[in-house]
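Reminder to self: tokens first, then the designed residues, so the page reads top to bottom the way the pipeline ran.
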């Protein structure tokens, strides 16, 4: 198989797998393919039939079929790795993989070996997908020091933000007292109620900002969706407390455009996220 041959298989597989909701991984040793497929039973069976008939390989065998309740390869429409002896030389439990004859019947030892191999490359792939911009896994001591200092700064910000959230909660109590409780009910107008709503929304935005800050020290999430959601919330907050006597028409139109742009952006991100987690 040349790289082009492999790319052809992968391109078809990935495109088709997204449509039929199949995820998995394909390993190529130079002479053998080892593939794992996850999806609805009938869909996988149908796909297996098609792969079985493909003339680009022969001696097709099903090693194991099992029911699963959670996908192990959910992010991959078809992960791929071409593996060689060198790569497995230092991997405990897998260094003898290339010396094992996988022909004949698949006994427990062979099955364990294949499962270990798949798990190994799944974990390797997951490590690569990790978003760790402030990684402490640095060879350069100076960069390590800078990353540690920034991480410390982010933690300090998170602490200050937590105090700010509590302060904002206190502010809500004070605003409720001043605007509602301390005056006769007949004096309660629209602007007083809007003021109370505004103070609630500020707490929610503060909480969103806190979550945004902590995302920078986690490595399993990409914060862009969260940032867009916070921006959307901040603009929406303005709309809720708009006093149309005070704002110009241009201001309202501009805010509307912003909401549509942020909403569209969030929808696109959500859709992208869904495709990855569904397949
Ligand atoms: C080793 C190997 C693995 C394959 N894996 C997939 C796969 O995961 N999904 C897929 O749609 N096609 C995969 N294919 C390609 C299918 O065999 C087939 O060409 C493709 O599904 C198109 O089938 P069709 O022409 O009947 O529509 C694979 C082919 C080979 C040789």
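Designed residues (279 positions):
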């Amino acid at each position: 198989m040349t790289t082009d041959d492999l790319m052809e298989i992968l391109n078809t597989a990935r495109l088709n797998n997204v449509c039929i909701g199949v995820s998995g991984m394909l390993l190529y040793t130079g002479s053998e393919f080892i593939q794992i497929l996850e999806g609805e039973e009938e869909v996988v069976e149908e796909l297996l039939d098609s792969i079985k008939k493909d003339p680009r390989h022969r001696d097709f065998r099903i090693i194991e079929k099992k029911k699963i309740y959670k996908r192990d390869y959910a992010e991959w429409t078809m992960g791929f790795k071409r593996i060689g002896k060198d790569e497995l030389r230092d991997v405990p439990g897998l260094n003898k993989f290339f010396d094992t004859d996988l022909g004949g019947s698949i006994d427990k030892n062979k099955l364990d070996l294949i499962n270990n191999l798949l798990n190994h490359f799944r974990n390797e792939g997951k490590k690569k997908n990790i978003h760790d911009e402030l990684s402490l896994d640095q060879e350069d001591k100076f960069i390590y020091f800078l990353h540690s200092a920034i991480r410390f700064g982010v933690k300090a910000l998170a602490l200050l933000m937590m105090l700010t959230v509590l302060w904002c909660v206190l502010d809500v109590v004070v605003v409720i007292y001043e605007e509602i409780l301390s005056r006769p009910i007949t004096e309660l107008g629209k602007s007083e109620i809007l003021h109370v709503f505004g103070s609630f929304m500020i707490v929610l935005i503060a909480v969103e900002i806190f979550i945004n800050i902590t995302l920078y020290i986690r490595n399993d999430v990409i914060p862009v969706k969260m940032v867009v959601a916070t921006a959307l919330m901040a603009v929406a907050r303005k709309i809720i407390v708009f006093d149309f006597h005070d704002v110009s028409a241009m201001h309202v139109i501009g805010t509307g455009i912003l909401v549509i742009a942020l909403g569209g952006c969030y929808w696109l991100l959500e859709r992208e996220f869904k495709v990855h987690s569904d397949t």
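The pocket of flavin mononucleotide is lined by residues 9, 12-13, 16-17, 26, 33, 35, 47, 50-51, 54, 56-57, 78 (CB under 6 Å).
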